[in-house]
Amino acid sequence: SLVENIKDYDYIFHLAGLTKSCSGDEFYCINHQGTENILKAVVKNNKSLKRFIYLSSLSAVGPSRNGKPVNEESLPSPVSDYGRSKLEGEKAVLRYKDLIPITILRPPAVYGPRDRDLLILFKIIKKGFFPEWGSCCYSLIYVDDLVNGIILSAESDKSIGRFISFQIITIIQQPILQQR
User: Fold this and answer.
1) Which of residues 109 and 31 earns the better pLDDT score?
2) What pLDDT, in 10s, does the model give residues 40-88?
3) Does 180 map to a domain?
């Protein structure tokens, strides 16, 4: 059982989460209640935990406002069931911050090997087509960079009790725009 298998770990990286569903309830069941269940098991059975790292999402904050990138101080305003469920997961983690050392990470969309969602967009752009989304800035992170950030957050005492949002990067560079 989860409760019995969660003891004797120095670090717990809670990276699991549901990103696609036809049901808002399913998002909450996995992303919020699942997180709550793990936290209860940790508090009950792992008294020596050095860090609980929760991988949330920038979707928990919602899109940027006034053209400024979101950051740790941005007021959350998620626009999807996924984002709202990740925000509820964050709130669950925060309720345990006095019992266990926690860090909450908010990465943007992740791309890399075996990714199917963003691969389609990259293929379209590579062929010289550019989706008309207006003047928007999109945040992405390469999977290897995300893994490095997760490891750094576990190694740094400065990240205890903090939210960490990853830096905004633009996926659409000037040379692509000139190919239109």
Assistant:
1) 31
2) 999 998 888 999 999 999 999 998 877 777 777 888 999 999 999 999 9
3) no
Tell me whether residue 41 is in a domain: yes
Residue 127 in any domain: the answer is: no
The letter for the amino acid at 45 is N
Tokens at 82, concatenated? 């996924």
Q: DSSP assignment of 125-138, as one string?
A: HHTT------S---
On whether residue 116 sits in a domain, the answer given is no
> Under a CB-based contact definition with an 8 Å cutoff, are residues 36 and 75 in contact?
no
Q: What are phi and psi of 146, to 5 degrees?
A: -65, -45
pLDDT of residue 130: 66
First vs last Cα of the chain: how many Å apart? 56
The total of structural domains in the chain comes to: 1
pLDDT at residue 11 above 60? yes
* Domain span at 149: 2-109+141-168
Q: Please spell the DSSP secondary structure of 46-109, one letter per residue.
A: -TT--EEEEE--GGGT-S-BTTBPP-TTSPP---SHHHHHHHHHHHHHHHTTTTS-EEEEE--E
Q: Which string of DSSP letters, residue by residue, matches 121-171? A: HHHHHHTT------S----EEEHHHHHHHHHHHHH-GGGTTEEEEPPP--S
CATH number at residue 146: 3.40.50.720
